[in-house]
Design goal:
Methylamine Dehydrogenase, Chain H; five-stranded antiparallel beta sheet; 6 helices; disordered N terminus; WD40_rpt; repeat; DNA binding; WD repeat-containing protein 76
């Protein structure tokens, strides 16, 4: 009996599963909402009895009560959703949405009154306000590169550009041609005390009578004549001009003479130590000339059209041999006693650029160069044609160096001006070994694009003090001791601009500063006036 009952139960289950499969095939696919609703109906009718089953399902009498109840719920749910007509409603909504799309906007055309449209600019229409057509705009001429052609080789006549009185100009040349005695350097006197030195500086004043307009462009270099009786200031300008200013001439406009011996900036000027009636000027245009007051000409000393010069100095006290620095890092050894305008020796250096060259005042075979981030000391006797190695390299700088100079009497100190806003002073008393750094002076050296770069210079009378321009307000020129202490500041109502280039008289208390507008400001001690 047990076996028979188990077989009947399995047969009933198989028939129920078959009926369930057929009902699933006959019913349409239901959505998620239909499934959820059927579940709710099933859950609500779980307590109903088998007697509530709708007649018409007798064909599935072989199913269990649960299966028949489930099929009933499915049938009712399908009829309910069919009565809602969801597909028809969705189609109607789709048609409504398509009909309600906004039409494409069309710009309204401006109304015309009497055939006249909107107002328009007559300038854009190229019509004169009176209604007459304007002439065609002329074609601008093609831009020509601003080139400064080299002046012809050979000597140039010393002709003033701003003075027309030839008699007065001849008198000027005659006066300064007689100032040909070299100044005597008294190195045995020693340095003055800072107290007396500061007292002399306090006596130096500036006035409107000592402010001169000399050149038309920024001043790049400056030198003071070593005369003890008269005051002559020489400046080199951006456009190749060399200006001479005689402060003893009255009225002061008659004491300014401007010459044009170069075609590009004059970056270095010196009065000859052997004959102060000669002034040597070096320019970016690759020429080095000597202005001779007695002959009234600018003689050509050295010429190199393939290179640009930056600085020079005298290797010998008689000014017969020179060392010339090039912007491309080369160096030239020039002997003025050799006929012609070429060099004796041309050597390259490891520096990418040379800004200044300065010779040791005692051991004149040594000279120092300032470049991008390097300061080197060389021995002129060891210069080679292909590359020269420096004796010493000063590597304490972090940015480009504007200048480097030995102290004027003993050469025991070196001052450098760096773009990292620092002045550095080194101990160069022993050139054959490493040069130690003594002092770092914080000073704003950021002059920008339009001002000439600062160059700290030693006072030739007081070689432990340096002179440098300042960006501070009110405008001033400052003097620092080698220990870093500020000794003095020159200023006044007449000093209204930055003096980037400064020079001090070798024996008298006279300071001249040049600015970017071609003016010089002169501070003088009352005893020197």
């Amino acid at each position: 009996m047990k076996t028979t009952s188990s077989k009947s139960e399995s047969t009933l289950q198989n028939s129920a599963s078959a009926v369930h499969t057929e009902s699933n095939k006959l019913q349409p696919k239901r959505t998620a909402d239909e499934m959820n609703l059927s579940v709710d109906v099933e859950s609500s009718q779980d307590g109903d009895s088998d007697e509530d089953i709708t007649p018409g399902l007798d064909d599935f009498s072989g199913l269990s009560p649960y299966e028949r109840k489930r099929l009933k719920n499915i049938s009712e749910n399908a009829d309910f959703f069919a009565s809602l007509q969801l597909s028809e409603s969705a189609a109607r909504l789709r048609e409504i949405i398509e009909k309600r799309q906004p039409p494409k906007s069309k710009r309204k055309k401006p109304k015309r009154e009497n055939g006249v449209g909107c107002r328009r600019s007559m300038r854009l229409l190229k019509v004169d306000p009176s209604g007459v057509s304007l002439p065609a705009t002329p074609t601008p001429p093609p831009l020509v590169a601003d080139e400064s052609p080299l002046l012809p080789p050979g000597p140039l006549e010393m002709t003033s550009e701003n003075q027309e009185d030839n008699e007065r100009f001849k008198g000027f040349l005659h006066t300064w041609a007689g100032m040909n005695k070299p100044s005597s350097k008294n190195t045995e006197k020693g340095l003055s005390s800072i107290k007396s030195y500061r007292a002399n500086l306090n006596g130096m004043v500036i006035s409107e009578d000592t402010v001169y307009k000399v050149t038309t462009g920024p001043i790049f270099s400056m030198a003071l004549h070593p005369s003890e009786t008269r005051t002559l200031v020489a400046v080199g300008a951006k456009f190749g001009q060399v200006g001479l200013c005689d402060l003893t001439q009255q009225p002061k406009e008659d004491g300014v003479y401007v010459f044009h011996p170069h075609s590009q900036p004059v970056s270095c000027l010196y009065f000859s130590p052997a004959n102060p009636a000669h002034i040597l000027s070096l320019s970016y245009d690759g020429t080095l000339r000597c202005g001779d007051f007695s002959k009234a000409i600018f003689e050509e000393v050295y010429r190199n059209e393939r290179s640009s010069f930056s600085s020079f100095d005298f290797l010998s006290e008689d000014a017969s041999t020179l060392i010339v620095g090039h912007w491309d890092g080369n160096m030239s050894l020039v002997d003025r006693r050799t006929p012609g305008t070429s060099y004796e020796k041309l050597t390259s250096s490891s520096m990418g650029k040379i800004r200044t060259v300065h010779v040791h005042p005692v051991h004149r075979q040594y000279f120092i160069t300032a470049g991008l981030r390097d300061t080197h000391i060389y021995d002129a006797r060891q210069l080679k044609s292909r590359g020269s190695q420096p004796l010493i390299a000063l590597t304490e700088h972090t940015k480009s160096i504007a200048s480097a100079y030995f102290s004027p009497l003993t050469g025991n100190r070196v001052v450098t001006t760096c773009a990292d806003c620092n002045l550095r002073i080194f101990d160069s008393s022993c050139v054959s070994s490493k040069i130690p750094l003594l002092t770092t002076i914080r000073h704003n050296t950021f002059t920008g694009r339009w001002l000439t770069r600062f160059q700290a210079m030693w006072d030739p009378k007081q070689e432990d003090c340096v002179i440098v321009g300042s960006m501070a307000h009110p405008r001033r020129v400052e003097i620092f001791h080698e220990t870093g202490k500020r000794v003095h500041s020159f200023g006044g109502e007449c000093l209204v601009s930055v003096c980037s280039i400064n020079a001090m008289h070798p024996t008298r208390y006279i300071l001249a500063g040049g600015n970017s507008s071609g003016k010089i400001h002169v501070f003088m001690n009352e005893k020197s006036c």
